[in-house]
Amino acid sequence: MIAKIIGVAVVPMLVVALLGASYAIQTHIEQKTIRVQGKERLTKVTSDSDRKTSTTFKNFVYSDDEVYVVEDSLWNGHFIAMTVYSGIKIGATCRVTLSGYRFGFLSMYQNIIAADCVPAAKGGAA
Q: Which of 55, 59, 100, 104 lies at a C-alpha separation of 20 to 30 Å from 122?
């Protein structure tokens, strides 16, 4: 009986703690200037036992010093990830707004939620 009471009390507290931690991490906002070295969109296709498939995408942006993702964020009310991603060009210098933290051991990346990019200068001008 005591174990059931403890379970009823502990589980909701754990859920609230996890949601609070997720909110605190994702609502951390900072701005940074980056030079885009590359970008790619990774696709993951999965199927269940009924052969129904689902496809998910993850957009990565590589800079001189870090790797970032561009994805929608419920906590930040950011649902235009593909528009932001399409505006980021390789070689450009971008002033980005980032949410979250980089935790490598958890494979968590900072999320680019806005980007103002200046294209790279064309070579050959004398």
A: 59
